[in-house]
Design brief:
CATH class of the largest domain: Alpha Beta
Helix content: 40-55%
Strand content: 5-15%
CATH superfamily of the largest domain: Type I PLP-dependent aspartate aminotransferase-like (Major domain)
Shape: globular
Distance between the termini: 64 Å
EC number: 2.3.1.47
Number of helices: 17
Order of helices and strands: HHHEEHHHEHEHEHEHEHEEHHHHEHEEEH
Bound molecules: 4'-deoxy-4'-aminopyridoxal-5'-phosphate
Largest sheet: 7 strands, mixed
Protein name: 8-amino-7-oxononanoate synthase
Pfam families: Aminotran_1_2
GO molecular function: 8-amino-7-oxononanoate synthase activity; pyridoxal phosphate binding
CATH architecture of the largest domain: 3-Layer(aba) Sandwich
Structural class: alpha/beta
Keywords: Acyltransferase, Transferase
């Protein structure tokens, strides 16, 4: 057969000639997980299709459910004003900026959004990336190198770990939120490295707890390290007006060297940002691969994020309501005897189930009763820390929470 004929084989012939990826260890791992779930009679709770906007409620399989699985913390995704901003942007700019920002992808909305973010932190400037995950991978990978040390909380998000791997730096995890553990590592390791970066999250999305920012700032100063805070879940959630961890502790923006956040949670969009000094932002905008060699944020994503930021400033009552709802959920869950781990009542409340099997089964049974909540299973967390993870929204009602926790109590046994 000639090369052309070989390349134009019919569908079934082509399929049989694919490399056998089922022999890849990652595929074997998936197979073991699926078979295990099937043997235990747990229906797959993942990749459920949401047929509309996912907020405090959502439509799945044609059925309206109470939803605790989305990061739409303030109900801004789906807000008519936010939708309108996207519509106007798409009508004006089309659906893609069609190039890297440096080349031909720059639009006025990019700078408007970045200066609004910089203002909220009270820092020099900010830069917006097309993905939150890529923001961490690219920024950490670009800023740090093989002679450096990255010390991070053991529960840090995968995107920061991958960024650290890309940097080729030595990477050490400190015990979750344990400042003594961090101090011990810094004390022992600091002299051996040129630069040291400490990475933490503003609010941990598995546990709903947060770090001691004043203590982190004092440690980073004492050991001459840089501090990076990932505010994916804390921005728009913590602080009396939603300005995040900084506002919660009443600290100025410049105490942290690298503020990072995502647009995909409270801000009702997609993408991520870094905010900080002018020199930091200039470097990232000019040279970091995930920004330079990637397309600019589409205008119809940047515009609703900017609109969400403005609504956040104008309607602080959303933050107040989110806190009330979170506290109500946490208190009620505790009073029913559930183990809510370290949650401090800011939008994220886990209920630990003791095993992946139980978490999976409870999720499926709750779904049958019109409640959508994701199980977090091993290996995402250690087996005994498997859990149902509840994301609260300012749009949830007290009745929805009563209904959910009463049903969970009934089916728990
Ligand atoms: N950081 C943290 C702490 C996250 O939880 C996530 C994703 N949930 C990301 C970064 C990546 O953000 P995105 O999903 O917007 O890419």
């Amino acid at each position: 057969q000639g090369l052309l004929e070989k390349l134009t084989l019919s569908g079934s012939q082509r399929r049989s000639r694919f490399v056998d990826f089922t022999r890849h260890p990652a595929h074997q791992q998936i197979t073991i997980m699926r078979e295990g779930a099937q043997r235990l009679g747990v229906k797959d709770p993942f990749f459920r299709v949401h047929e509309g906007c996912a907020g405090a409620t959502t439509r799945i399989d044609g059925r309206e459910c109470i939803n605790f699985a989305s990061y739409n913390y303030l109900g801004l995704s789906g807000d008519p004003r936010v939708n309108q901003a996207a519509i106007e942007a798409v009508e004006r700019y089309g659906t893609s900026v069609s190039a890297s920002r440096m080349v031909a992808g720059e639009r006025p909305i990019h700078q408007a959004l970045e200066s609004e973010i910089a203002d909220t932190y009270g820092v020099d400037d900010a830069v917006a990336f097309v993905s939150g995950h890529a923001t961490n991978v690219s920024s950490i990978g670009f800023l740090m190198g093989p002679k450096d040390l990255i010390v991070h909380d053991e529960y840090i998000h995968n995107s920061s770990v991958v960024g650290a791997q890309l940097a080729g730096s030595k990477r050490i995890a400190f015990k979750h939120n344990d400042m003594r553990s961090l101090a011990d590592i810094l004390e022992a390791q600091r002299p051996h490295f040129e630069r040291v970066l400490i990475i933490v999250e503003g609010l941990y999305s598995m546990d709903g707890d947060f770090p001691d920012l004043p203590e982190l700032v004092s440690l980073k100063n004492r050991y001459d390290a840089w501090l990076m805070v990932d505010e994916a879940h804390s921005f728009g959630v913590m602080g009396s007006t939603g300005m995040g961890l900084r506002e919660h502790f009443g600290l100025p923006g410049h105490v942290v060297d690298i503020w990072m956040g995502t647009f995909s949670k409270t801000l009702a969009g997609c993408g991520g940002y870094i905010a900080g000094s002018q020199a930091l932002i200039d470097m990232l905008k000019t040279l970091s691969p995930g920004f330079l060699y990637s397309v600019g944020l589409p205008a119809q994503v940047a515009a609703p994020v900017l609109a969400s930021l403005q609504i956040l400033r104008q309607e602080p009552e959303r933050i107040v309501k989110l806190k009330l709802i979170s506290d109500y959920f946490l208190d009620k869950a505790k009073s029913k005897g559930f183990d809510t781990g370290h949650s401090l009542g800011w939008a994220v409340v886990p209920i630990l189930t003791g095993s992946s099997l139980k978490a999976g089964q409870l999720s499926v049974e709750l779904f049958d009763r019109g409640i959508n909540v994701q199980p977090i299973l091993y290996p995402a967390v250690p087996e005994k820390s498997a859990r149902l993870r509840f994301f609260l929204s300012s749009q949830h009602s007290y009745e929805q929470i009563d209904y959910t926790l009463n049903n969970l109590s009934k089916i728990w046994q």
